[in-house]
Amino acid sequence: MNIGVFGRDKDKLIPISSIGDTIGLTVLIKEIYNLTGFKSSIATLLPEVFENNPYVEKVYMGTSAENPLLPCTQYSCNIIQNYFNQFSFPLPENFTPEIYLSNKEIKYAQEELKEFKGKKKIAVCLNSSADSRDLRYDKILPLLEKLRSQGYILIGVGLGNQSEEIYHKSFINKTRLRQVFSIINECDFYLGVDTGLLHAAAALNKPQFVFFRHNGCSNNAYSNTYYLDSPLTCPNQCHEAGVVKCFSEVRCMDMFNFEQYYKMIINKFPI
Questions:
Q1: Labelling 169: which of 32, 50, 161, 245 has CA 20 to 30 A away?
Q2: Is 74 exposed, middle or buried (0-12, 13-18, 19+ CB in 10 A)?
Q3: Residue 95 or 235, more confident
Q4: How far is CA 113 from the centre of its chain?
Q5: Rounded Cα–Cα distance for residues 13 and 161 (Å)
Q6: Which of 144, 168, 177, 153 is closest to 44 using CA atoms?
Q7: Does domain 103-268 match CATH 3.40.50.2000?
C-alpha cells in the first residue's frame, strides 16, 4: 500500500515536510499492518522518519501516492485521528507514534552526553516554525534557571536563534534529524513547544512537558504529555483580524504560569 501526506495547492497536491505530520503517519502504517499483514510504501519528503520501521516496505522521495492523505488544516484537529478518519479505521486506544533508532544512533547520543550520565537530562526546544507557538527566551529563562539550579541538565535541541547560555550543552542548529532524535532519546524528558520534536519525543517514549497555545492544540497531546492551558482567550477582534494578528499581538505563549510548570516537573521527575 502506497501512502503519502500532501497539502493542497489549488488543484495540486504538494508533499508535506512537517515533522509532526510525518511522524503521526507511523501510527497508521502500524495499524494497517496489524489489520492486513501488509507493510506500507511511503512517499515523503522526510524519509529519515521511517528508517528501521518494521511496518514499512519502501520509502522514497515521492511527489505522489496511490493513497494521498491530507493533513489537518485546523489547530483543533488531531493529526493521527485525521489520518484514521481518511482510511475509515477506528483509532486504537493509547496510540503513540514510533521512531526506531539503530544501535549506532543510540551510541552516538550516549557519547555526546556521556559527561551527564546518571543525571536527569531535559531536551529543551523553544522554537517552532511559527512565532505564535514559540516561547520567548526571557519569559521561560527563570524556569530554566530554577531547573538548572536544582540539578537538572538542560540540553538545547531544534532550531532557533535564542541565547544558548543557559544550556549545559546545545545542539540547536547543529544536528540532522536522526541525530536530534537520538539526543532526545538519551534525555529523560522533553520540555518545550508544540512542534515536530514534541511528536518525536512521544515516538521515542519520552514524556513531554509542553506549552500549547490556547487554541485547541492540546488536542494533539499523548498519554504521557503534561501541560497547562494558557489562561488567555484571544479577544473577538483578533479572530476577526485573523490568527496571525491574534497571536502576534496578544501572545498566549507569554501567559503561562511557569511556576506551576516547575512544580509539575519536580513532582513527576524529582532529582
A1: 50
A2: exposed
A3: 95
A4: 21
A5: 32
A6: 177
A7: yes
- State how far the Cα of 46 lies from the Cα of 18, in Å rounded to an integer: 8
What span, in angstroms and rounded, lies between the C-alpha atoms of 40 and 59?
Answer: 9
**Distances, alpha carbon 80 to alpha carbons 41, 94, 178, 182, 203, in Å:** 18, 12, 22, 23, 13
Reading the block at residue 20, the C-alpha cell is: 509532526
Q: 233: pLDDT confidence band, cut at 50, 70 and 90?
A: low
- Look at residue 41 and tell me whether its pLDDT is greater than 60: yes
Task: Give residue-wise pLDDT tens across range 47-92.
Answer: 999 999 999 999 998 778 999 999 998 877 899 999 999 999 999 9
Cell representation of residue 58: 519502501
pLDDT above 70 as % of the chain: 91
Average pLDDT score over the chain: 90
Nearest to 148 by CA among 202, 191, 200: 191
Q: Residue 6: exposed, middle, or buried by beta-carbon count in 10 A (0-12, 13-18, 19+)?
A: buried
State the Cα angle at 103 between 206 and 199, rounded to 5°. 25
Quote the pTM value: 0.92
**Residues comprising the chain, all counted:** 271
